[in-house]
């Protein structure tokens, strides 16, 4: 591989030819024959060139970026020094992932100089499965690579070999024809740690910064915030010599201000994570003086060589030959923002004039070189996608004022950002009457179980919300048993599906918003230039808040995680560990993914009216974003659950084991046929929707999955797609720039996932070509529309933000401590041209006409019309329900009543009744369609008119109205014709059962319930108060009571008066209260009759006088007659217990009872036969002998009464005389 | 009526092991003349219920029941018209109505072939005339009318109060022109658990957003707040997205409508 580079450097081969050579298998006719010949001999190496180049650059830069921000994945050389690592500058911070392109044999100690060649040769040898870096011999995967002893051994051996080879003066070109034998020559001075740059990368032991990440994900490198840094000093006077524009000077001041604020804050904080110092006085630290060195274009060494490599490197990037675009950008920016070369090396780092074009001499001999290289790459790279922050980088200005000018221009021309207005998170899923009501459950029990489960689920969720951030709180310990108990109750399959629906809805609701995902909302970062330009203190304070805000930084390639609320759902699934639940969840997720994936997102054409279309596009983008984010979330959880049974920390240890697992797994059908969906998506040009969620799904696959044929073919398709997304290409029907960028970002990320074998990316071309996707370029799909915006890009790929953080950290003058304020990447979006959309043949001519009409109108018009139609159609159905159906129900009720009157009280079989009613009423349902049509006709035009702009031409307006009417009618009528009969039936059925129930217990009382009179002001005493008062009287009468206790007669009369009022004003009276009042009044009457009420009198409590008692009884009688609307249990007056009260009184007072009985009959409250029956049964009770006799006399007296009532007073006197007679006789 | 915590504690302090009788309530009224009878009764009732919940089990062991029944039999054997059952309840510090229930159950076990059903017992307690034994009927009746915390009459009073306050609340809402859906309307829509009223347009009260109102018509002590929160309010929240902030607890208007 080095040979290729060498030949490039010697200009034997042109860069263009080399890139063609790398990218394509076939030779191009444009190739110079001489070049072709030179390259042909190297053909077998083509596959390895890119890995080699990347590794080479990383290594070369390793000394420059010791203190830099995180090491990008698969970027072996550009490591960041980890705190606490002695000799940090050398090779600290290299992640395990850096072994993507290491030699297969680590112990080739002597090959310190030759590795390129050796490795290239080796890589050809073993099959793809063996190329995986860091694997032990025979092993399929290494464990935690960083700590593996073989590496340490190799390193020792290398270091021992290197001192003896001064090799710096070596100038012979490498022997290209004999790569295997390429001699090891130490052409580089030994580094401070005694190592030489080499492609063989020493793994970095996993340090505590990484302890959180999983093994094999060490490549994610430490978070920026942990990199030790001293306060870098940016001199106040411009050290660059080149005249700074005046704006820059004020910028310098602003920056200085910022630094002061920051250091102030750091001093205040009790435990600063990193050593800091006052600006301008750098502190020496372990990693040396980190003051940024002034980069000077004049001091660049071997300019030509750097230019060449930069050219070929950027060509590789442009052609998508690198696995992860953003990783490379990150690397370049690291170079650009390199602070200074490792101090210890300075003495050794004299340029080697003798070998300017040799690979053996270090590529980057100084910061100047790094910056030069970076700028060179950027010059090639960023003519389209632009990093605005770069515009501010002074070094850029020095090295290429032209590029800076372009950047600025690009920035100013960039489109406005669109922010996703998401609903706040953590809302509960609302009760959904249509799916959650009783009718959807098999039994009452299932319904109530689910009711309970819903409550338990939210209880668990709330507890998690409250407590999951507490130290020491453990999900499993805290909630595990409760969750399992709950899952245990879900017995019926139908309950599972209900619960899964709830779970999924809650998942979508909580995790969709950016806050819910735990990612930083980058889009809201205020523009730095504006911010610094303004001298408002408030702004600075906001800035400060941002600076101290914790940032989620997992490096540019974080492993898949479940941030924020997602963690709850993941842990819930794990804790529930319910097979049924998982299966139902997978089913449900798959269904929802299919549904959303095939959702017909509106496909409006980019409008000519720019202003308007921009507004409209925001809605489109928002909808797309919501769908995309939902899909990603669902797919992630589907992947999680689907691969859960197979997940393990370690890949299978032996090939045999792996083969047997493969044989087993290859016959398991996938949970969701993602390959078909991917192919569909590509064909329909909806990759921008399909691929991001597919990536989420695959990111949670286990180690075996990429080896399965099914999934491997998916990876190949994805790889092909990746290769085809060349950002610089823009043609008709091509994908929009940001869409491409999103796909590149997610795919690049996927290729870095630990479970995805590294060798997948560098497949043989033959394999790639076999999977040509047949897209129809003429058809207009989502891909061609600017559906992705900056915000969505950053939401989906928060790791892109690492680039900004890196640049921001440079601007802020620190090496990555801050990173909070970052500016947006603002590439210009491209709009693709109009494409003819073939009319849908399935729809009628009318529909085609409508389509054609919409085609020529702004998309908002279509949306408005569709919205109106949708709402009016729905309203129409509601209106029919409220009018026609309600009328029919009323008819049904009156018919039913007639029926009941005719057939007597029971009315016959309810089911039969229902049938009769339905057969009479359902035909009327036909009216629904006519009425529905009228409704839509009447309502739609107004709504369309109100929502469309005033200036809409009349013809357009009327067409829009007509279409809206048509669509609304179609919608409403389709529903009504399908459902009206069932609806009427259901409503009538409910009405019938209601009526029948109402017929039940007390039809009389129910029939003539009176309300209070119109003039009533509802000032009557409350029923509760009256019951309470009467209860007090009863308890006093029943006793026990204190000797002085009693009731005043006034109070008693007042109480009965109040009772009358309350019974008049029925505002507060409910039937149970009235029933109790009635019963209490009867009890009171019995006590009056038995003279048991102690009345407070002047001397002492005594019994009532007979006249008083009668007055009270009269009051009660009239209340019973006119006041109560519930039946009064008057028969209780003659219950043995109440009559027995008389037994205790001496002398017994029978006249009041007789009086009462007569009055009851007279007022028609009780019939004579009824009283006679009661009296008859009284005689059966056991009484003292004398009492029985008196009772018998009373009975005879009552029977002897003439049926016609006599005047009241006389009757009483008669009773009194009679009683006297009775007593005299006894 | 809003009470301070100190006021409430003072009242609750006076209610430790006080029998739920007319006399106790009268004494309470004399001690706290500034408080309304409704408030005092509500607090009394809640405190007493807490007390009963704690001690309920020990009165229901078969030994205890047997002892009580024998004491009752002995008591009425001596004098059927003396308040035997009521005094027994007061003596063992148990609610008279509940004591009546225990004795009635035990009595029916002796006198009926099949063990009495709950509905039969309830019906007899509602109307003691149905009790076959005249003496027991009088004793039970005496217990019920003298118990101010338990029993069918008290239940009815509580129910009536609840109903009245719902009506009052509805009137208030109508008076203030607040549009709402009531329980019946919500139930018709198929909701399984519903508060009394859901406001169709939320209102702000003292800085809190009110989405729905549940009238409890009882004194809102910490315990009942907690219980209602668990039994009802969270359930409403779970169903209706009624609160803008996930951490905020449902607001209750118990205090505003304390008896």
TrEMBL record, chain A:
<feature type="domain" description="Codanin-1 C-terminal">
    <location>
        <begin position="783"/>
        <end position="898"/>
    </location>
</feature>
<dbReference type="GO" id="GO:0012505">
    <property type="term" value="C:endomembrane system"/>
</dbReference>
<feature type="compositionally biased region" description="Basic and acidic residues">
    <location>
        <begin position="251"/>
        <end position="260"/>
    </location>
</feature>
<feature type="compositionally biased region" description="Polar residues">
    <location>
        <begin position="266"/>
        <end position="290"/>
    </location>
</feature>
<protein>
    <submittedName>
        <fullName>Codanin 1</fullName>
    </submittedName>
</protein>
<feature type="region of interest" description="Disordered">
    <location>
        <begin position="62"/>
        <end position="297"/>
    </location>
</feature>
<dbReference type="InterPro" id="IPR028171">
    <property type="entry name" value="Codanin-1_C"/>
</dbReference>
<feature type="compositionally biased region" description="Gly residues">
    <location>
        <begin position="135"/>
        <end position="146"/>
    </location>
</feature>
<dbReference type="GO" id="GO:0051170">
    <property type="term" value="P:import into nucleus"/>
</dbReference>
<feature type="compositionally biased region" description="Gly residues">
    <location>
        <begin position="85"/>
        <end position="95"/>
    </location>
</feature>
<feature type="compositionally biased region" description="Polar residues">
    <location>
        <begin position="218"/>
        <end position="236"/>
    </location>
</feature>
<dbReference type="InterPro" id="IPR040031">
    <property type="entry name" value="Codanin-1"/>
</dbReference>
<dbReference type="GO" id="GO:0005634">
    <property type="term" value="C:nucleus"/>
</dbReference>
<feature type="compositionally biased region" description="Low complexity">
    <location>
        <begin position="106"/>
        <end position="118"/>
    </location>
</feature>
<dbReference type="GO" id="GO:0008104">
    <property type="term" value="P:intracellular protein localization"/>
</dbReference>
<dbReference type="Pfam" id="PF15296">
    <property type="entry name" value="Codanin-1_C"/>
</dbReference>
<feature type="compositionally biased region" description="Low complexity">
    <location>
        <begin position="160"/>
        <end position="174"/>
    </location>
</feature>
<feature type="compositionally biased region" description="Low complexity">
    <location>
        <begin position="75"/>
        <end position="84"/>
    </location>
</feature>
<dbReference type="GO" id="GO:0005829">
    <property type="term" value="C:cytosol"/>
</dbReference>
<dbReference type="GO" id="GO:0006325">
    <property type="term" value="P:chromatin organization"/>
</dbReference>
<dbReference type="GO" id="GO:0005886">
    <property type="term" value="C:plasma membrane"/>
</dbReference>
From TrEMBL, chain B:
<dbReference type="GO" id="GO:0005634">
    <property type="term" value="C:nucleus"/>
</dbReference>
<dbReference type="Pfam" id="PF14811">
    <property type="entry name" value="TPD"/>
</dbReference>
<dbReference type="GO" id="GO:0005737">
    <property type="term" value="C:cytoplasm"/>
</dbReference>
<protein>
    <recommendedName>
        <fullName>CDAN1-interacting nuclease 1</fullName>
    </recommendedName>
</protein>
<keyword id="KW-0963">Cytoplasm</keyword>
<dbReference type="InterPro" id="IPR029404">
    <property type="entry name" value="CDIN1"/>
</dbReference>
<keyword id="KW-0539">Nucleus</keyword>
